């Protein structure tokens, strides 16, 4: 058990243990109340985190931090086992507000602000989204114009007001505001500025208008608000000048000339927020599954024929099929997240190595948050009426995690980013290949696809290594209507219908209350389906032969493979040239591969 726990806890096990102890504190247990009570309590809890030192993890030692990026993301993930409003409030304060100052600012900003960010002496906001532009942040319309030695921050109209901003409605004293930088009459693109939004007495600063977004579907401990800036003047030094600066005479300078590249490099340094949301979604999913699986182990419904005892829900295959695949996917995402956090921790400072992690972070964030939304709903239903009671947590989990699919990058838009990255990598791979290399590439892709789709690797491996018997195939896991009733004599079967299970040597095994499911009569491994299936014999072998032949300089197999691969290569070329268009081939349905 300890070994398993250590494996699951991974590299930041110590952080996880500290978080577990912290979450045992009854003052951190999620609870309800009026909007104001929830907000006040969440702010108090934020201060508790700071006092416990949790906020120090991700910041440099010079400013009171612990220089542990991986630890801070893992700590955030663990917080999601408790109050999700606190999680998001902490994410805004330490991850977004503090993170922007740390990564987009320079030493003068670190000196001025970081210690107060960590201690929550300076509660802050991350003011990027505008009412008119959420996903397309390059098109933001707030302006920061340099004139007479200061920047003037201006909201041109209501469409450009900052919207949904966490910490803005009640607690924030300052905000990192993203705005179009204009100097010497030229617009230099979106940059970030530290702008005070409230005075020490809590009233809005001069020229700042603040509005409360009001109650939300969830996360009501977080005070989201709207901000308008009417000629707010801030010192030139408040520009977070890590990627672009303005000299006293108004001259603009930057280490990255290309404005698009500069902007995306700036955003890339804020990747931590996205990875953290994925981790938080994972924890909320685990909470839901833990409740639903435990309930399913004790809850009984219906009596098995010929027995007195009622059956526990988890003995029903239907129930297993709802919960166990979700559980398996949750473990898979847990390990994927762990790998990503480790890679980010090791490679964050190296821009070249960090770039590929950005697409991975986007993909895992989308996968983990959509999985959370679907799984929490499944778990709620799996607990029946009890799942609907507030005390059983699902209402809170559903409401609070819902928006994870939208903030820190809308999932659909993030997947477009991932697709673009993959196509770019694909194009550069193809661009360097000669015809032989192209064939090899296509053939290798085919092998991978076939192996993945047939799960050949999963089913062959245990037998080869003397491991446990293979998992049941998809067909085996399907409901088995034909063995529940008498199939009648062979002549009565429809022409071409499958022979009954018994005739195929399939043994019957009774499961309590769950009907019957077939298992292979001899515990051996069945041949790979795609290799032996009618109409497509030997797809794997043919593709492998093509790879071998191409590697050896091309024999008969190779030449045939050249002819076969050519249409696929032309297809791929056309797609790369016109990525938006769907290409149909007359001789094939519009499906890439159907094993
Ligand atoms: C509770 C909450 C807290 C937030 N906190 C903050 C914060 O602290 N700071 C901050 O700056 N922002 C914050 N946000 C804003 C959040 O980041 C944005 O809501 C998010 O980026 C989406 O932007 P949008 O709402 O404008 O949606 P839109 O971008 O308008 O998207 C609406 C729909 O259109 C789809 N869509 C958009 N573009 C495309 C496309 N090209 N192709 C196909 N479909 C597309 C999307 O998938 C989505 O379904 C918060 C939001 C919420 C709800």
Characterise this structure.
The protein has 595 residues and is α+β, with helices and mostly antiparallel strands. The protein folds into 4 domains: 3-119, Acyl-CoA dehydrogenase/oxidase, N-terminal domain (Butyryl-Coa Dehydrogenase, subunit A, domain 1, Orthogonal Bundle), CATH 1.10.540; 125-257, Butyryl-CoA Dehydrogenase, subunit A, domain 2; 271-432, Butyryl-CoA Dehydrogenase, subunit A, domain 3, CATH 1.20.140; 433-457 and 509-518 and 532-595, no CATH class. It is 48% helix and 12% strand. The chain contains 19 helices and 14 strands. It has helices at residues 2-9, 13-23, 35-51, 69-79, 84-104, 107-119, 259-268, 271-298, 317-347, 351-382, 394-401, 411-431, 435-454, 456-464, 474-477, 481-484, 529-532, 539-551, 556-577; strands at residues 124-127, 143-147, 150-154, 162-165, 174-183, 186-196, 208-212, 225-235, 245-246, 252-253, 300-303, 310-312, 507-510, 516-519. Strands 1, 2, 3, 4, 5, 6, 7 and 8 form an 8-stranded mixed sheet that branches. Helix 10 (351-382) packs across helix 12 (411-431). It is globular and about 90 Å long. The protein starts with a helix and ends in an 18-residue tail after the last helix. Mean pLDDT is 82; it is low at 459-540, 553-559 and 575-595. Bound molecules: flavin-adenine dinucleotide (FAD). Residues 92, 126-129, 134-135, 164-166, 216, 219, 224, 403, 406-407, 410, 412-413 line the site of flavin-adenine dinucleotide. Flavin-adenine dinucleotide (FAD) binds at residues 92, 126-129, 134-135, 164-166, 216, 219, 224, 403, 406-407, 410, 412-413.
